[in-house]
Amino acid sequence: MPTAARDHESMPTVSGGQRWLTSWHPVDAAPEGRNHGAAGVCVGNDGRDLVLISPDQVHWGFPAGRPEGSETLGETLAREMREEACVEVLDARLLGFARSECVEGHERGLVLVRSYWLANVAIGSWEPQFEVAHRKVVPAAEATRYVRDPDAVATRISTRALIEAGLGGDSST
Description:
CATH class: Alpha Beta
Order of helices and strands: EEEEEHEEEHH
Strand content: 35-45%
CATH topology: Nucleoside Triphosphate Pyrophosphohydrolase
CATH superfamily: Nucleoside Triphosphate Pyrophosphohydrolase
Number of helices: 3
Structural class: alpha+beta
Radius of gyration: 15 Å
Shape: globular
Number of strands: 8
Helix content: 10-25%
CATH architecture: Alpha-Beta Complex
């Protein structure tokens, strides 16, 4: 299993030619920053299945997206899960936050905060209509075998979200 992000640990990464520091924050320590939307650890069929998406069928991760207008975090979660994974959120529990601060590049000083949720979902038929090209449903008990983001830091954040959701082993990170 990949190493999970620890609370408040600053992990350097590069995105869009810029350097960022990304960190995990627990539910009770929501960081300040611009709302960068919601990501869902989507489980269906009474928690037996995990829904993942991919742009390339190599890197698999959670559906996620940015808010539109004045959406709440929960509203963003529900809409993005419908649009990206063709699932309907039945209920959800906030798991924590990823905070990313641009430390070098044209957006230096920008702080983005994305919420991570455990979403119990009804899995609909796969009818992609937006930017996501692929979806697969895997056994939730084997979640850490499948979740692989293109970036090592993103994988550490995803691994922590799985742990917080009860799908990734030891939560004493």
